Amino acid sequence: MTNALFPVILCGGAGSRLWPLSRELHPKPFIRLPDGQSLLQKAFLRAAGLTGTRQVITVTNRDLVFKIEDELNEVNQDNLAISLILEPSARNTAAAIASAALMVARKDPQALLLVLAADHLIENKVAFEEAVNQAKQLAEKGRLVTFGIKPNQPETGYGYIEYQENQVIRFVEKPDLPTAIEFVASERFLWNSGMFCFKAQTVLDELDKYAPEILDAVRETISHSKISQGVTNNNDFFHCELNADDFTRVPEESFDYAVMERTENAAVVPSDIGWSDIGSWQALGAIGQTDGSGNRLDGEVIMHDVHDCYIRSDNRLVGAVGVENLVIIDTPDALLVAHKERSQEVKHLFKQLKTAGHEAHRLHRTVHRPWGTYTVLEERPDFKIKRIVVKPGATLSLQMHHHRSEHWVVVSGMAKVVNGNKEILLAANESTYIPAGQNHRLANPGMIDVVLIEVQTGQYLGEDDIVRIEDVYGRAPIETTNK
Amino acid sequence: MTNALFPVILCGGAGSRLWPLSRELHPKPFIRLPDGQSLLQKAFLRAAGLTGTRQVITVTNRDLVFKIEDELNEVNQDNLAISLILEPSARNTAAAIASAALMVARKDPQALLLVLAADHLIENKVAFEEAVNQAKQLAEKGRLVTFGIKPNQPETGYGYIEYQENQVIRFVEKPDLPTAIEFVASERFLWNSGMFCFKAQTVLDELDKYAPEILDAVRETISHSKISQGVTNNNDFFHCELNADDFTRVPEESFDYAVMERTENAAVVPSDIGWSDIGSWQALGAIGQTDGSGNRLDGEVIMHDVHDCYIRSDNRLVGAVGVENLVIIDTPDALLVAHKERSQEVKHLFKQLKTAGHEAHRLHRTVHRPWGTYTVLEERPDFKIKRIVVKPGATLSLQMHHHRSEHWVVVSGMAKVVNGNKEILLAANESTYIPAGQNHRLANPGMIDVVLIEVQTGQYLGEDDIVRIEDVYGRAPIETTNK
């Protein structure tokens, strides 16, 4: 009998390279490809489709949890068990893998972990499954297996692995261009993909040997963390909310640096699987069909003499004249125009925004909450307009605002509203008014989304003017995010 | 005593070359420059500042009248008389000048007309006034005077005038580049600016001689037109709404072609007045200060290694990386990215949109009405959200919709609302509901703007679902535009 397999999806990222579509709270894994699926959904389905997978573990920032649950539920038609490890802050991959290994080892130390990234694209599914099978065999023998990608160009943004068959000769940091050219020509080097396979016990032993301070700190964190367990479709799952105080003390290190480059048990599976890490707009723009002039278009675009551009727009008309090799990315609150070959440098804009404290680095106009979404349609000093979408069965917190009154107009679905002492049902085309200082609550008791337009008025309209009296999602009485 | 001077501003244009900022119903004269004034306002102030000006006549499309009145009132601090000739359709400049000359001649056939364009920029005001004084002297002697601009580059988009002192030797149509280069080098040619000066009687005589069918048709039109007169600040003004049936029968011809190229009385005033016709985004982008990298920025922009770009954004963040010589124009519903030197070709996009019947060629999200403006904030199949701004003292029509209900939330000012049989006052943070089929009316009895958020719901939300029961602006019971 072969060992059980636990795919572990590492889902994070700064959101900087694919700005303005990606944001700090909407990083790369959530980007949708032309077929409508996000990179995260593709990673999940890839993991779910492997022989022997009975649950998929996702390690992610706790702020992303509602969004991740929405994304995974959307494609989890087989009702696979979904386990979550929620990090209060990013502590790099060694900590993330240690936490997953500890959680799996509690159940089965001999089980195999298959560590995958949520934001990679793998186009050859059959080759991927073959590579995983090879990796499993090596992992069962106690090896720490990394997946090495056969390079097709002298990429200077990746680490390289010198190899012979399944043996790792050495890891090499990001090389300069002449070295990269030499590496690719030699055919003795692979790109280091950041995907791994090993037994839980093996990786814990090696962490104990080469990075004990990380392992100990994560073990300590888990012992103080909130862990819940359940069963779905006869398969166990768990939710582990890592303790924030302990986790901040875990040293930040990459798993490559902490373990792989030091261990004597490293192995590599050369993989020709159509891999891309979608590290830039140029890479994302290389997916999908082009028109006769080499343009890739997603949205409403009119052009005159335009060549080799990637143009993507949510809901506005984009006109282009006499340009080539541009990336044009239009979102409701921010626009990017970049030269295709310079699109990696969009991270500099992201840094500028973050340094300046500009909201556009962190959030989209549409914000995901446990109960649904809200979208700011207009914001002025004395009023704010939101479109609020509440999922069937969901309930917002019982809350009160000191400074703002709210006018609610239901435009779709049936809302249950607590307004002061009254509880009322509001159908489409019905409205209610909530004066400042009055307790209120919004819920969707129906089977379809409630869509509601909220007009806020008042002298202070900040999202932090909220007093939570009761919340089914266990959120703090006062938060900086709304509802 | 010198003859009276009537500046005549021709205000029209297709809105195609400066799309998406210009639209068919928001053409070039309404474009605002970095100092906050529109080209039309600058033309008006230029005309108003001339010695002897007691009223300014504007000839324009009747659909633009509310917008023009708003624009001119904003800068008409001296309360100059403003006369309007409203064209039901565009019939080119010969017809426009004929109508102005006929209107002026009714009062004083010896008065001088100074024909100016609403969308030209003239940077040297002193030189302009000197040129006008020269032109007036020639015009008083019975000459038809055109202003010739000293060329500073071999422009192929303009007509040229060969001249000697004030004599016109010949008019030349748009030349090819080698010819243009030769013209500029010879120093014997001027650009034909489309600005003129002549006595009303002189131009009527010449029209009668060279284009009698135009003059007769315009005379016929005026005899069937609605003309009102008034006095402001001791100066007369008139409003002439040209009869639509008659005016469509006026031959379409340019004044240059109909008269100037044929008359024996032509004269030219060589003018070095800092003139530009702002014929493209490149020309508009050449106005104002650049940053150290040659960029002209208007709006919130972040950049990394960007050179010689013109970036303009109303209210969204624009990020640019590694690009140069681009024009990036961002508006609420449409975006343009064009190579600077190709920016003239934006008219091709405009044509595509017009052919396809796309609203973005015609209207902005914000639409001007006689009572104020409305802005579509969001439009979905089952609801639409508008921000409505009503000017102090203004009243919308008493109206009814068959298919849509409306929820009104006042967020600023004090509104007077007729809702069925009731008349109510609504202050900020108050709301009302108007069911489909119910008569209603909105007015602003106060001293500051009323700002109101309207949420429409219903199965049909087209602007043509409106029955007007009563309207203070004399509008038809049913129109394709709202309110």
Automatic annotation (TrEMBL), chains A, B:
- Where exactly are the transmembrane stretches of this chain? none
* Gene Ontology BP term (one): GDP-mannose biosynthetic process
The record's keywords, sorted A to Z, are: GTP-binding, Isomerase, Nucleotide-binding, Nucleotidyltransferase, Transferase
Q: Write one Gene Ontology MF term.
A: mannose-1-phosphate guanylyltransferase (GTP) activity
What sequence ranges are listed for the domain Mannose-6-phosphate isomerase type II C-terminal? 357-471
Q: What is its EC number?
A: 2.7.7.13
Query: Main EC class of this protein?
Result: transferase
Q: Which residues form the Nucleotidyl transferase domain?
A: 7-287
Which Gene3D superfamilies does the record cross-reference, listed alphabetically?
A: Jelly Rolls, Spore Coat Polysaccharide Biosynthesis Protein SpsA, Chain A
Q: Which PANTHER family match?
A: MANNOSE-1-PHOSPHATE GUANYLYLTRANSFERASE
Entry protein name = mannose-1-phosphate guanylyltransferase
